[in-house]
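hey so u asked for the seq, here:
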Amino acid sequence: MSETDQTRRNFLFAAAGGMGGIAAAATVVPFIGSMLPAADTLAAATTEFDVATVEAGQLVVIQWQGKPVFVVHRTPELLKQVDGHDAMLKDPNSEAIEAVSAEWITPENRKYRAIKPEYLITVASCTHLGCIPLFKPSPGRAEWGDSVPEDWPGGWHCPCHGSLYDVSARVINGSPAPHNLHLMPYKYLSETRVVIG
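ran it, structure tokens below
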């Protein structure tokens, strides 16, 4: 084989290899791109909300990453309902699993499960089967009848299977739900503006 033939062969090998590399990259890049989150998913990664729009005693439901989120403006009366029934709770200190706690929880705000006690922000899905519990804040059976126990401290009742949560979204003993309602990462951007996620 002459030197010219060898040079030509080396050129053809390099050209074919280069074209093969380009073809492989052209095939792999779309697959990798399909694994990245979509723009709408990235946009939903965080949600901003002004808690000042929630009136005292009111619950609103907002969306975060496609999940419903409860935002409750707890009155001084509702905050008093947080105490006095720890024996009724499965996990009074929100320590059972990571999803029921948050990095911002301190010993001072642990029972309130909120950065600011008056504003509870929690995922609105029952930890039993994912239903959305009903807000029943007043204690006792006067307003709620047999749907809650006689010693009802006020909170949430999931009508699907009977799970009960207090006003800090902590699960009550005897409920089919295994855990407290989940918390998510959030922080205050201003006195009343929060960013979730």
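Residues 3-36 form one domain. Residues 3-35 form the longest helix (33 residues).
lmk if thats what u needed
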